[in-house]
Each structure stands twice: as C-alpha cells, then as structure tokens.
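P.,

For your records, the input lines for the assembly:
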Amino acid sequence: MKRILIGIKRVVDYNVRIRVKPDGSGVITDGVKMSINPFDEIALEEALRIKERGGAEEVVVATVGPADCQPQLRTALAMGADRALHVQADGIIEPLVAARALLKLVEREQPLLVILGKQAIDDDNSQTGQMLAALWNRPQATFASKVELIAGEGGQKARVTREVDAGLETIEVDLPAVITTDLRLNEPRYVKLPDIMKAKKKPLEALSLGALGVEQQQRLKLVRFEAPPQRQKGVRVKDAAELVDALKKKGLL
Amino acid sequence: MPKVLIVAEHDGAKLNPSIAKCVACARGIAAAEITVVVCAADASAVASQAAQLAGVTRVLAIEHAAYTHQLSAVLAPQIVALAGPFTHVLGPSTTFGKDVMPRIAALLGTAQVSDIMAVESPTRFRRPIYAGNVILTVEVDADSKIVGTVRIASFEGVAGGGSAPIEKASLSAELPSHTRFISVSAAKSDRPDLQTAARVVSGGRALGSADAFKILYSLADKLGAAVGASRAAVDAGFAPNELQVGQTGKIIAPELYVAIGISGAIQHLTGIKDARTIVAINKDGEAPIFEVADIGLVGDLFQIVPELEKLL
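Structure tokens returned:
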C-alpha cells in the first residue's frame, strides 16, 4: 500500500507568550494551550492533498511523547489522517531519539514518503527530519515549498522546491524519502465538528520506546533557561527630517 | 586539546561569509585547533579564501564533480569519514548548515547543538529557543563528539590575513545517487547580501503590492542597504522568499535595520533582535515593532519614504 508517514510534535501554541520558570529550570507550561507544531500541520496537509490526488492510499500520523499528546493525534485524525501511532515516552526526547523511533516506525510501515515539519517552534532544533533520512540512508528534501510526485523509470520520484538562502532550489529525490515542510507549502485545513466525532473511532495505537528497542538517551543537559535581555525603549521622531537627524546623531549616516 | 572541523559553505567560487563567523565561534573554544574542510568540484579558490581566515590551522580540500551542488546527502558521508579525530564539527546556521549538519550528527550517532550563540566552555553553549524568547544553556556529554550549527548573527566574522596550509584529501566515502540537483532560481542583485549587510531596509504587508514594494529598493540603494521583507509581505507575493527576515527566514544583525510597514510579529522580531539600531516607520503607533525600535516614526510610509529618500 502506498503510505505516507507524518511525524507531529505537541508544542506550546504559537500564540502563547512564553514565560521562563522563576528557578530557570524550564518554561511555564501549566495551564498553557498546546497544539500540533504548525510546520507539522503543514506536513499532514500535504500528505492529505497527495492522497486526495491519488498519490497515496493511506496517511499515518505518529508522535513520540507523553500520554498528553493524544489530543493532538486526535486532531490529526480529525484533519483526515487514517490512523495514529503514539510512541509513549516521558521526559526529554532529543531529535536523535525521535529519529530512531521514527526509523522503527518506517521499518514497520514501509512508507513511500515521510513528511515532517522543518522545525518545532519550541526548541527550534530543525534536526529530526534530516536525522531520520541519515539513519534510513535515504534522500532528504528539507524546507519544501512545493512537492510533486513523479512516476518514473526505475521507481517513483519526488521533485521538491526548497526555500534556501539563495532563493528557490529544486531537487529530485528517489522515493522513499524524507521531506520537511516550510511555511509556504500549503495552508492547512480547518477541522470540522463532524470530523472530530469521526476521529474518535479511528485507530490510535499505543507503542513505547522500549518496545521499539530505542534507548531514551539524553546527550544534552539543559542547564538553565533565561529570558533574553530586553531592548531599551527608543525615542519617537515626528517626520523624515527628524529621523535623518536622529540617525546622524547616532553616526549612522 | 579541542579539534574543530568546520564544514565550508560556498558557491564553488566564493566562501560564504558565514564561515568567518563559524571560525569566530570555534575560536571561543579554548586552545582549539581549527580545520576548515572544503568539498567542491574545484576547491582551489574557496580553499585559499578559507586559508586566509585568522585562526584557521589548516584547510582540507576534497574535489569531486558530485560536490558541484553541495547536496547534503552527498556531503554528509564524506564529512563523517573525516570526523574521527575531531572533538567538534561545526557548520553555519544557514539553510546549507541546517540541512547538512543534522545528517552528519545522526551518522555520527551524536546530538546536535543548533544555533550556538555563545560558547561558555568546550562543552557548554547558549542557544535561543521559542523564537528567541528564551535563552537555553546546554551542556554536552563530555565523551560525545559535538556537532553544532553556529548562529551567525551572534558572531563577528574573523579577519583575513592568515595563511593556513591547504592539504588535498582524497574522497573516502561512497556517494549516493538518490538525490539530484535540478535548478536554483536566485535573483541576481548588486545590492549587499541580506545576511551580512550592515544596513537593511525591510518592508511589510502595509506596502500593499509588489509594485509599491519597489519604493524600498530605491531607498535601499540610496543607503547602500540590502532589502528584506516580513513573512506577510513574502506570503502576499510582494517580495521573493529569500528576502524573508524572521524565525523561519533569515536571522540578521545589521548596524541599521529600517522596518517599513511592518507590525512586528514575534516571529519577525526574532530575526532582528541583534540589529544595532532599529528604525520603525508605521502608521499604527500601537504596533509591536515600536516596542523594540530605537527610533520610531508614526505616519504614512508612502509619504515618508520618498521624503526620506530626498533627504539622504
């Protein structure tokens, strides 16, 4: 079966103003709204569109995280994923551990394509997709703003446009491959109420890191969380002439 | 003694300015010996530029036609083959480095420290998380090889004038053929490079159209500035993606940043936090951009920008 595997991460909602705990041991998450990482929603949307165009038959969504991640998996099912895999793990899951867990799911599910967000908006690491591609020894097409599947001689390929510093780069990769999404790839659909009801009946399988044979190593000790220094409040000028004077005074003109 | 390997970013002819900043970061690791590796179809020009960076101990040049387009899947196995004797492997936190370094880290079976903004010790680093709203200090396991990307807005590039020896190394990894370069569409521009420009003029949604956005180009040319854009302006099609400044675009640290018609979403402010002086021009006096601006001017940008241009 032509299958697409999507990795999602539960993160603090992007509208929440982040506050550091007074003792510097982390950020405040109690009572804070949690959501699917926005880049991962784009990944799921892309998979759903590929399926709707006939390019895939099944979309499987997976996450690695604590029991609290279930609402985000249900949301993904309500968006249209066919089933969900929850690799349960508490505590810190570093990108390499997440990639190793996803590799185990890849071996089990044999997807044509794995799509992930290009980064999570909490730790801003931007590592998991590339790491999975490396461990899997398959191509990676990161920061995608356009994805086209092509049936070619010698198997299926994807042509991916990537947002890079120089502009837009297009590469072609043999499938299976890992794609990570940038913001302009698509605009994710809204979930409708009847879909939320339907999603409750879709299969959600619970697994664990241990059962997959993945060790939850932590290589990076998180020593201290701090708020960044604030910029000094500036001055207001009333017109272009005053602005030019102010810039001259600062030695900038 | 720490031994640092820096993966050179280049376009075949020129070493990317981000590498001088990676060297600056590596010099923050006490007593480090610094090697820059250049993988290219023809490495001679880029290797000699790398050899001039102050603090570089030696340059390794590896030549192969497959390196023409700097594909991560092709580069990573070779860097891994070289990494054995090194304690640290660093690359820039540009789209090149963000793409290739995690692939290297995974093949080495080690963790990556992304976006290093300060070196506290050979194993302890500071990095921004949550779009720069939190600064995290991390300590890496002492017996792990450390892979990292360097947040280039946090470092001054090292000076030139050095003369490190250049050694040719031979290809020792198998190169995959599953990934192929097709094309890159980059607008040719005579303006300074956005990522390293001393001055940047940036526009937002309030410009209203791609045509109107052009008034920023002529202001930028008067100032000798690069042009940037907010995500909203890029999404609306007023400016190409490579001009985007912010959490998911470029993180920059110019001397002067002029934000025109940009409201200042948190994701945008992430990209300009290190600018020396921020000027904001916006008709909404309550816009969040004024919270971070050193000089604010409330008014109609279509009136102010031409006036400003005349005064310069």
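Two observations worth noting. The domain at 199-311 of chain B is CATH 3.40.50.1220 (Rossmann fold). Residues 239 and 308 of chain B are 22 Å apart (CA to CA).

Regards
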